[in-house]
Amino acid sequence: MNLHIWLSFPLAVVFVFSGMPQAERVQADWVAIRQDGSPAEGIYAVATGDDGVEDSMVVKLNSGRELRLGRKLTDKLGTAEVWSRANDNQMFSLNLKGVADLPANVGHMVIVAAGQYLFVNSHGSQEDGLTTLHARIAGKKAADQVAKAFNTKVHLRQHPGHKIITRFTPKAESFPVGQPVEIQLEIKNVGDGPIRFYQGGQQRGYRDNQFRFTAMSGSGYGPAVPDTGNPRNFGGMAGLQTIQPGESFKIDIGLDKWFQLEAPDTYLITGLYEIELYSEDDRRHALWHDFAVGECHVVVVERAAAR
Questions:
Q1: Residues with Cβ < 8 Å from 152, sequence gap 6 or more?
Q2: Under 8 Å CB-to-CB from 164, ≥6 apart: which residues?
Q3: 244 and 273 fall within a common domain
Q4: What is the pLDDT of residues 273-306, one digit of tens each?
Q5: Phi first, then psi: what are they for 210, rounded to 5°?
Q6: C or N terminus of the chain, fewer CB within 10 Å?
Q7: Calpha distance 27→16 (Å, rounded)
Q8: Among candidates 200, 148, 167, 189, which has minimal Cα distance to 41?
Q9: Tens digits of per-residue pLDDT, 71-100?
């Protein structure tokens, strides 16, 4: 037989006996506590300064940040998937489906499972009225513990074996000072299987942040040219691209979104294009995160000498 203690304010203590195998009590009408002093598994609200609770439990999130747990919202956690988010398999996503009895209009939440405190990054409604929750897990050991608690497996990343050649090519032999400088990216698949990645998703803004560039004056031996562009973006539409073996993906891009090449010179441009590879059967979970990298020389001349 287990002892449950309920505290409320003005202070009153009520002892309730039950035959539940896992005893819980409520601390300040908010946090459900195990007999060992740790919060019971479930989903909790994050306590705020407006809650009127002075002794809510401070916990350390898996990410390292501390916060206060509010009231327990539900212990009906549904089913779970754990997927790696990084090539080194040290950052993971926890996706819960079928979460039940979650109140409407909930603010920030924390998932308590396997001794881990996981901040909920996003949540949404399912067609059946249940809820999906998404959180991140730092560290392989913690991911293994959470997966075990939910009786599921950890999906790890491994190199898919892709092989590419990346080439950046100026669109002209030279460019007059003050005029836009355009180059072309080409990614050629020199492997044995198709390569699938999404183009877009970072271009809704001043520039397409799927690209990164550096520019060095003096053919690469002089000072770097400062990036004077605006990197802010608000996502954007994305479409799946497939490069079959022996084929290429090409796209033109203007360097004026990054640099003002105002002096006649030869500039060494190093370009990167971010690609997340996907399988044919799964378009939600990336196989691998990579960059297509290449270099080219851009010649900037006085207006009369441009070709």
A1: 79, 80, 81, 82
A2: 187, 188, 189, 190, 191, 195, 243, 292
A3: yes
A4: 999 999 999 999 999 999 999 999 999 999 876 5
A5: -70, -20
A6: N
A7: 14
A8: 148
A9: 899 999 999 999 999 999 999 999 999 999
Q: Which of 110, 138, 155 represents a domain boundary (last residue)?
A: 155
As for how many domains the chain has, the answer is: 2
Between CA 282 and CA 290, with CA 285 as vertex, the angle to 5 degrees is 110
Looking at the structure, tell me whether residues 30 and 74 fall in a common domain: yes
Confidence of residue 48 (pLDDT cuts 50, 70, 90): confident
- Of 137, 155, 173, the last residue of a domain is 155
Tens-digit pLDDT profile for residues 216-268: 999 999 999 999 999 998 899 999 999 999 999 999 999 999 999 999 999 99
| Domain extent at residue 289 | 164-305
Do 202 and 81 lie in one domain? The reply is: no
Q: How far is CA 224 from CA 1, 52, 253, 271, in A?
A: 73, 55, 20, 14
Q: Give the pTM.
A: 0.80
Query: Which strand (E) or helix (H) includes residue 216?
Result: strand 211-216
- 112: closest CA among 96, 101, 126, 128? 96
Q: How far apart are the C-alpha atoms of 4 and 33, rounded to whole Å?
A: 10
